[in-house]
Each structure stands twice: as C-alpha cells, then as structure tokens.
Amino acid sequence: MANATADFASSPNKNESNLTPYTTLLTWTLQHGGHLHPSVQIAQDAQRGIHLQVARDWPSRVPTDTHLIKTPLSTTISYFNAIDRPSTPASPVAFPAHGLHLPPKFMEAVGPKETAIFFLMGQYLKGEDGFWFPYLRTLPDPRDLTTPVFYEGEDLRWLEGTSLAAARSQREVVLRERFERGMGVLGECGWKGRVGFTWELYLWASAIFISRAFSAKVLSGVIPEEEAREENVSVLLPLIDMGNHRPLAKVEWRAGDDNVAFVVLEDVSAGEEISNNYGPRNNEQLMMNYGFCMPNNPCDHRIVSLRAPPGSPLQIARAHQLQMYPELGGEVEDHYYVFNVFYPLLAPDSSMEHSIFSPALLDAVSVLAANNRELETLEIASHGIKIPNVYGNSRALLAAMSQVIIELITHALKLRSTGLDLQHPTNLKQTHAKIYRESQIMLSETALVIAAWTLHRARLHRFTGSWEETKQVLGAHLARVPAGRFPDEIMSKVQVRILERKSLLTHNGELFTLKEVPDLLPVEMQQPCKAWFQDVLSVSENAIPMLTDSGESSPFAFPMFMCLVVAIHTASQSGAVEGVTLPSRLSRWAGFLLENYPAPPNDVAWAVEDEDDEYLLSQFDEAIDGLRTQNPRVFARLEQYTGEWRKDDWWLSPNWLRWASMIGEQECVQVPEDPLSLLATGGGGQLRLSTENFLYIPQE
C-alpha cells in the first residue's frame, strides 16, 4: 500500500478473507492506549461479515454499563487532525496531522467536513507509511461499497421506480461539485500533494465518512462545544466502527478525556453479537448512507414527497406561519412519513391513524383537501398547521385519507410494475435493492389496509363501535386481504393497531350514497322522498342526453337532497308547516349549511362560473319546470313537509339549485372504489382506479 493509487489497485485487504487485518488493528489500538473487554472477540461469518461478539465460552452474561471498547483519541480521524490541532491547557489532547498538511486557504474555503474527506484521501495515499495504515487497510474499497452512488450498469435497474434513483443522482451531483471545487482550490494554492486525488478516491473517502463517522459529541471530553459542532465535524473511531447496526440496540458512546468508550446498556449473552445502533434509520437511509437495508426493520418508514403548489392553501398557510413565527428561521422542516406497523417510537397516546401516518402528513393533506368552509377554521401555530377537529370538519380528514390511499396505491403499483423482471439478484447491491423495494411495497400496502379501514367506518351507518361489533366488522375487512399477502405477524399487528388505538375519526357513518340518504329522514317521509327522487331523475334523464343512464350518479342528486332537507328545516322552523320535525342530526346539518353558505337572493338570478355546468343546470331547470306543470303530484306529495312549491322562489328554484350545486362540490368526498382490490392484483399492467362520490353529513 506504500505506492497506493487512486484506483485502489494495491489495496492489501481486498483479497484477504481472514481476520489478520482486524487483529492487527486491535494490536495497534491497544498499543496507543485502547482497550477491548476480555469477553469480546472479533469474528467473521457469511451472514454478518466481520463483527464483534461475546466469546461463546465466556462464563457469564456481560452486564449492562460495561465498557467493551475504548478507542484512544490519538487514533481518531477528524477535521482536528487536518488542522494539526495542538494541545492546550484547556484541551490537553493534541490531534496531529501525521505528516499531511493541507493548505490553510483550502481548509478555510471548503469547510471542516470537506477538509476531513480530503485529509482521509491524503492519508490513504500514504499507504504503509501512514500513521493510520492499520485502520485504513480494514476499510472496504469501492468494489465492496454498496451505497447507491456506487451502483452502475445493471445494478441501476434495481433502483428504477424508487425514490433512491433520484436521491442517488442528486447526491452524485452534489459530491461531484464539491470534489471539483476542492480540487480547484488546491490548484489555486499550488499544492503538489493533490497528485492522486481522483474522483474515485474522493467518492470512496466521502462514503467512508458518511457510513462510518460519529457525531462530534464523542470529542466533547476535550474539545469545547463551540469548536465541535455536530453539523460541522464528524469523527472516525477505529475499532468501535466495526460494530454492525441493530435497531434499538441499547448502547452509548461516552466521551472521555483520552478515549471514546463503547458501552452496552443491556446484558449481552455469550455468543451474542455486540451490535452498534446507528439510530432509528429507515431502510432508505440505511441504503443511501450505509449500503444495506433490513427486511424486518422495526424503524422503517417512508418519507412522502408532498408538494405545496404555489397559491395552494398549504403554501399560503406556510407563508403565514413563517410571518407569525420569525423564530422558525424562514424554513419549516417537513415530517411527512408513512410508518411500518411495528414502528416503536410512537407517543403512547398516538391515534390509530397517526401510528401509521405522521401527524404532519395528515394535517398537510387535510389542508390541501379542505373546502373553503374548513379553511376558514384553519389553525396556524409554530408547531404545525391543521384543520381543527370540530363539527363538520371530519370531511377534511376523510378527503385526506382518500388522497393518501391514492398515493399509497400509486406508489405500490409503480414499484411492482417496474420490478416485474427484477426477481433474481446476482450480487449484494441487487440483493439489498430487492429487500428495499419489497419493504417499500409492504409499507404502502399495510398502510393501505389501515387507511381503508378509516374510510370503511365512514360508510357504516348502523355501526355502534362496540368492542364485539368492531372485531366482527374488522375481521370482515381484513378477510378481504388475499390470504398469504402479508406474514401472519404483520396481519396480527395491523389488527392490534386498529383495535388498541383510538381513531381520529370520532364518528362512524358520515358518507352517504343517494340511495342511503332518505333513511335519515323520519319514517313517514322516506317513501315519498324516494318516489320523488325516482320521478325527477327519470324525467331529467329522458330530457337531457348527457344524463342518460346516470341514475343515482346524476350531478343533481345530492344538490336536490340538500335543497329538500333545507326546505323541510326552514318550513318547520318558520311554522310554514305543522307537525313536521327533522331528526336532530339533519336539523343541525341544515342549519350548519345555511350558516356557512347563506341562502341565495330572490331578486337576482344566479349562475355558476363554468359555462358547461351552467348550460346543464339550465337544461335541468327546464326539465323541472316541465315536470311541475305536467305532473304536479310529484311535488304536491312533499308539500306537507316542504311548504309551498308553486311560487317562483320555491325550494328547488334555479337559484336554490345552483346554491346546492356549489355546496355539493364542497361537501362531498371522492373515495377510491374498493381500494383493497389492489392487493388482489399481481402488480403488472395498469390498475384503473375509480372513485365514488359520497355526500358528507356529519354526526352530532
């Protein structure tokens, strides 16, 4: 390695399959004052590679709070070595550069993190003559690195359709810009040591820092906090960085005055692997930064890319938020996540929906899906923007869940369709990419089951929500998931999440078809109402070609019901009819509509903005006038409930119909039709996703 070149041709560890480089590293570490607990041994196997474990013949469990490894500060690599930081009375440990001195102008220009990367490149090129040679020879060369920036050729196909494909391209562009800028500054400085500083070597050095470096907090025992800010300084810890990642492993890195200690905070048994914990990383973060992922990662979650288009309610609300709270610094971090059903880092009181969809995600989608009435209640605080949970606003949640379901279906289908011919990986990169793809599909499809349950409840009008009834109805819902689609433990966890956590949806049965809404009326009104709908819809279908065979899906169906309910409510409130009382749910709803959408005037003719809609409404007006003249009994049989209908400003006049039509666009919810049908498909071809329009009538 003394004559190492940028193509890593002479890297000595690439053909070594034994533990010699690692035992040499251990010896070197101990010589500089390091420590390895006598229970710990370096091991290797096909599944875990090089790793640390408690010796199988160790007579007892290693107890919690045991210092297993101590890495001397003198063997760490960081920006402080690059600047050849001397010891001081306040910081008695020196961080020498060991013969590699980058130009001060360069380090000032590129900053601490880039300086550390270029410093590592220079130390690598020193080969066997370098101080850190025992450590560097244990690091993987580019042929062994599996982060996406090292994918090429056939491997890239395994990233198609995933968010990693774009993330890889973006990172490569950023790294290329940083490399070229750094090399340019070195050239301006006339520094001859840059010979051998190739793009390939830079890519390797940056990958090492990204995948293996620790927070600057590990130096807090000797470096003041103002010097070692986490966003600026990363530290390589030889020996400690050998540990493999295990989510939720209880470990700690303790900063000392001459070493960094790796401490276990749980008992470890003989023969058990000693794992590190990189934090609650999802599979995308593990792939992007470390080059691997886990098929059953409990911390897995998907980051949803949700745009706030210019002029959208969400974008406007965000702008107001930044004006109201200047301490946010002009930018608010998005936390739009879909969690897996085993995600362990949830607040105990998180709702069922928030256990799968982050509050920020549902709040943001609710704002985008909100109608004008709901937006008037919008709450903007420093910690978030949301539609409050008050009477009439559960419609926004249902609309948001519908949009979330469409996104989940689209995401899963895209991954399945782009991965149809990616079934048999031929190398480690492709193997991890396959695990990643499958974990992403699993995230979306299990989330789909839970989101569909919330919308399903909105369609259950006689569902009391009792424990026994919930288990029965939920059982029928889960039975629609094809057998074997998910492992039993996942299906069980889905059921537990639904049964044990309270839903954001306070009430069931708030979405209706036209066939269902008459059942909300008093019993004596139901049959006359149904007959009236049948007559009016039949006449309008015959009179208006565009409505042929529209039936209950007629665009005038829900507006007519709104006009009818408001007419009955108004007539009973004014005393125009006697002995007529709407159920409290419909009476409150009618008053709520009139409060939020003032009644149309009598002296001005209304028209809707869209010319095609106005033309259709005009045709419907003519059909209704003809029906009133030719078959007056159709409206006469409702007169005892609605009051007078022969005057110009009657309850289904052109103005009232336009009023209700405009409200209908605001108060209905488009729901994906049979969303769980996706789970019964093989994933190939195109899935036609239809939606159904439901009228939202809130519970009291």
Describe the structure.
It is a single chain. The strands form six sheets. A four-stranded antiparallel beta sheet has the order 1-4-8-7, with helices on one face. A three-stranded antiparallel beta sheet has the order 13-15-14. Strands 2-3 form a two-stranded antiparallel sheet. The model is unreliable at 1-16 (pLDDT under 50). It has 22 helices and 15 strands. The protein has three domains: 35-279, set domain protein methyltransferase, domain 1, CATH 3.90.1410; 301-509, no CATH class; 511-672, no CATH class. It starts with 19 loop residues before the first helix and ends with a strand. It has helices at residues 20-31, 79-82, 104-110, 112-125, 133-136, 163-189, 199-212, 283-290, 313-324, 359-369, 372-375, 394-418, 428-457, 467-478, 488-500, 523-543, 557-574, 584-596, 611-630, 633-636, 639-642, 654-667; strands spanning 35-36, 40-45, 49-54, 66-72, 214-215, 234-235, 251-255, 259-264, 301-303, 337-339, 379-381, 384-386, 511-512, 668-672, 691-696.
